[in-house]
TrEMBL record, chain B:
Membrane topology designation: Multi-pass membrane protein
Domain named ABC transmembrane type-1: residues: 82-273
One Pfam family recorded for the sequence: BPD_transp_1
Main location as per UniProt: membrane
Record-linked SUPFAM superfamilies: MetI-like
Gene behind the chain: ugpE
Cross-referenced Gene3D superfamilies: MetI-like
Subunit-structure text: The complex is composed of two ATP-binding proteins (UgpC), two transmembrane proteins (UgpA and UgpE) and a solute-binding protein (UgpB).
Name this protein carries in UniProt: sn-glycerol-3-phosphate transport system permease protein UgpE
Compartments where located: Cell inner membrane; Cell membrane
GO CC, any one term: plasma membrane
Keywords: Cell inner membrane, Cell membrane, Membrane, Transmembrane, Transmembrane helix, Transport
PANTHER family linked to this entry: ABC TRANSPORTER PERMEASE PROTEIN MG189-RELATED-RELATED, SN-GLYCEROL-3-PHOSPHATE TRANSPORT SYSTEM PERMEASE PROTEIN UGPE
Transmembrane regions listed in the UniProt entry: 20-45, 83-108, 120-144, 150-173, 194-219, 254-273
Amino acid sequence: MTPSNQHDEKKPFPWHLVFFLGPGLLIYVVFSVYPLLDTLVLSLYNEQQGQSSFVGLQNFITLITDDTWSQAFWNALGNNFKFFAIHMLVQNPIGLLLAVLLSAPKLRLSGTYRTLIFMPTMLSVVIIGFVWQLLLSPIWGISEDFLYNIGLGQYFDAWLGKEGSALITLAFISVWQFVGIPMMLIYATLLNIPDDIVDASVVDGANSFQTFWHIKLPLILPTIAMVSILTFVANFNAFELIYAVKGALAGPNFSTDLMGTFFYRTFFGFQLQQGSASMGAAVATLMFLIILVGVMLFLFFIQRRIQRFQF
Amino acid sequence: MKLLDRLMPSSGIRQVPKSVTIHAVLLAYTVIALFPIIVVVINAFKERRAIFRDPLGLPDSDSFTLVGFQQVLLRSDFGLYSWNSLVVTILAVGLVLLLGAMAAWALTEYKFKGNLLITFLFAMGIMIPIRLGTVSILSLMVSLDLVNTLTALVLVYIAQGLPLAVYILSEFVRTIPKELTEAARCDSVSEYKIFFCVILPLLKPAMATVAVFTMIPIWNDLWFPLILAPGEETRTITLGVQQFVGQYVTDWNSVLSALTLAIVPVLILYTIFSRQLIRGLTSGAVK
């Protein structure tokens, strides 16, 4: 990969190019590009008792059709789509609303609000997971008391412990933590909209809502699209929150299993099941393909159609 | 504000209630954002009974105690874990900045074969998480005999941080006027000197932004410490907290104190860097 102009006799070998690009490129290729490609290759092999043999797409077929594997795989994939849907439906609209409010002209304290609301995003997902585990714990009763105080006490439940609600609760915790990202990105775009465009719309008699709907929203659509793809990649790569709160088994009864935790268990094993590098690689490859397809769809259909506005 | 506008009757005194509504919503959300963190921190300083009797009250002279912190510090190596995190983060961020700036400079300034391919390779890394290569990274680290070393983490984090660094810094290099480097070349200043004495100092503001964006995921990462360096000696603070809290779930004082101890360094970092972070986000560094 090292660029070379050796056959070009007029110029000396570009040592400075090797010097500037070499170290970074080397580390990046060895510890990121090569492992990713090697994982794709490894997923086509099967290793038993130290013997590795080429099996083609067998690992994927096993993953998708075999009784012991497919149930766990489809469960994790389905959960991952639910997890993503909740982020898209809750996190990004709230982020948009907060950004719109923050960008109100001459709003006092907007910097303070922005800084404080962004704070949870900075913290480790592990810490956030434990914090919410404590808050939602029926033993401590903080959430329960709060709900009783606003007259909704009968709805309190051990949400994190029940199959039906654990995944949704974890998704909401994640939404709570990361709402700062869409907020900041959309806010930044809103600030960059030139005043004249907004003024012109006001002069034309549009009220604030019409100005938002017809002028600002089209201008922030590229940012919303980008926020969506970032959410997608982050969600299909999520692991820490589930692992911190529920452990590698993603309980109760795998109801909170995501592709990330499924990958971890497949690779390292758990309880009676032995870990397998090649099956782990197959799961990682599927995750890779899912993310790649998402990114490609985004680049080819959404990013292309939405015109980027340069101010 | 624009959404709320419709709900508000248009009148001369509209300005006042509108901004009050905006403040009410933002304030309410700020409380939602901070409440969990505050509850954990104040309870870390309380006796066990007070934690349950009055979870929302501030510690008073009766209930104040540091017993949780004592237990955490005695039963685990928080100092060591923090030190490990600090070493890994500083080395990785420092090298991402240096190597990223060098690569960004090479890719934007020089035309050569493979330039486009390498640029594309780095761009891919922004979207494809390095975590998906874990199976191979682990076997690579085993064969390099780097498992349970901080070096393994530093190397992986450099690889993880470089794509975004190269992208942001390349954008920034493009804004540097060509005249500057051309003048230097006319005076036959070497390429190395041009980069280190002219370009690198100019890149400082962009590098600060890159530093913040690179630092947060490294400091908070659980995945690679768990897989590449789970040993007692190399544990990072995130992994340390994860294991400590998992082990002592029923000891509320310790759990709350451990969480507080883990939150504090991030809050300090955030106060120092929040201006840079927000500037980076609002100046479109990640667009």
